[in-house]
Amino acid sequence: MTVKKSALRLAKRLDEVGFSDIVHVRNKVMELRAAGETVHAFHGGEPFFETPEHVKYAMVRALVENKTKYAPSSGIVPLREALVEKLRVRNGLKVDIDDVLITAGGAHALYIAFQAVLDSGDDMLLFSPYWTPICDMVRGTQARPLLVPTSSARRSGLTRTLEQFSTPHTRAIYYNTPQNPSGVVFSRAEAEEVAAFARKHDLIVIADEAYEDLVYEGEHVSIASLPGMAERTISAYTFSKSYGMTGWRVGYVVAREPFMTGLRKLALYSVNGVSTPSQWAALEALSTPPSFLDDRRKEYRERRDLLVNGLNELGLECELPEGAFYAFPRVHTISKDSRKTATMLLEKAHVATVPSVVFGAQGEGHVRFGYSVPKPAIESGLEALAKLVK
Ligand SMILES: Cc1ncc(COP(=O)(O)O)c(C=O)c1O
C-alpha cells in the first residue's frame, strides 16, 4: 500500500531556504538584558542616528493631506523623478523615470531582482563573505549560489578568480560594494574588471549599493555607470542606511528592459506599491543637505577608527574597513569555530557579535562587529573584551 503524503507541507522550493541566524544572537542579547545584565551590543546593522526631523514631518504632512490611498505600484511619480536626478548626479547613471521602481527597502529590491532573472538550474556568482540573506534569496529561485572568496580574489585577480569559479550555467553576478560584512569597497579598477567579465560572458549584474554613502577610503563606483553596463545591470538601493530609515521600508531598483517588465510584475504581486506616506517622506529625505551625509560619515569614521585600533591592540587582527559600518576581525586565536568564539564573547564578556560563518564559510575565523553604536559603548565593549583576551 502506498502511503499518501500529507498535503500540509511547505512548497519544496523552500526546503533549501534558511532563516536568519542573526536572530539567535538577538534573542540571546534580549535574554541577558531581561536578566538585568549589561550587553555590549555590536551585533546590529542599523544607523546610530534617528530619521531626520524634516523627513518625519513630511510623513505627518502626507497623512494630514490624505496621501493615504494606493500609490501607483511602481511608486509615486515625484519620488521617481527626484531619483532620476539623484542617480544622474550621484551615481553617474543616465536613466529615465520608467527605469526606476520603488520597493519595500533594499531587501525587496534584491528579492525581486533575483526572482526576475534566475531560473532553476542557473548559477549566480557572489563574493563571499556575503550579506546572509543573499544565498537564501537565490536558493528561493532554485538557482545555485557560487561563492567566490573575496580576499583571495583581490589578491590573485578578480577576473582570474571569477573565471575559475564560473560554470557554463552562470547567468548573473551579485556585486555588493561597500560590502557587508567585511567593509570592503571595490575600487574603480575592480569594478571595471567585474564589468568586463560580465560583458565577455554575457552575464547580468545585480548591484547592491545599500551602503553607497558610507565610503571612508576611495570612491563609490556604481557598476551600471561603466560602459556597456546599464543594459545588463539591475541596481538595488535603499533609504535605510543613508537616512536612518530602516523601519520605513523604502528602497528602489533601477533597470532597463526586459528586466523592468518582470520587476514591475513582481512588485505588483508582492506588495502592490510601497506605503504611500513613506514614499512622500522618502522624497523629502532626498532634499537632505549633503552636509548631513558628510557629518554622519565623519562620525562613523571616528567610531571605526576607535574600534579597529582597539581590536588590533588586543591582538584581534582587523583590516581597516573602507566602507559600511562593520569591522571583521580575525578571532581564530580564540577559536577556529566562529560560532564558538561569538558564544564565548557573549557569555563571558557580554560582547554581542555575529559569527562569520553565517556570512559564508569563506569568512570563517572572524566575527562581525557593527560599529554603528555610541563611542562610549565602543570603549566599554573594548574594556570588556580586554578582560577576556589579555
Ligand atoms: C548589503 C545589504 N544590502 C541590502 C540591505 C537591505 O536593507 P533594507 O532592506 O533595510 O533596505 C542590507 C541591510 O542590512 C545590507 O546589509
Task: Supply database-style keywords.
single chain; 390 residues; alpha/beta; 3-stranded antiparallel beta sheet; 13 helices; binds pyridoxal-5'-phosphate
Summary of the model, kept short:
The protein has 390 residues and is of the alpha/beta class. Helices cover 41% and strands 13% of the residues.
Task: Write structural notes for this entry.
It is a single chain. The protein is an alpha/beta fold and 390 residues long. The chain contains 13 helices and twelve strands. The protein has helices spanning 22-34, 53-64, 77-91, 105-117, 133-139, 150-156, 158-165, 188-200, 259-270, 276-285, 290-313, 338-349, 375-389, and strands at 40-41, 100-103, 123-128, 144-149, 170-176, 204-208, 233-238, 251-254, 326-327, 351-352, 354-355, 367-370. The strands form three sheets. A seven-stranded mixed β-sheet has the order 2-8-7-6-5-3-4, with helices on both faces. A three-stranded antiparallel β-sheet has the order 9-12-11. Helix 5 links the parallel strand 3 and strand 4 (144-149). Helix 2 (53-64) packs antiparallel against helix 10 (276-285) and helix 3 runs parallel beside helix 10 (276-285).
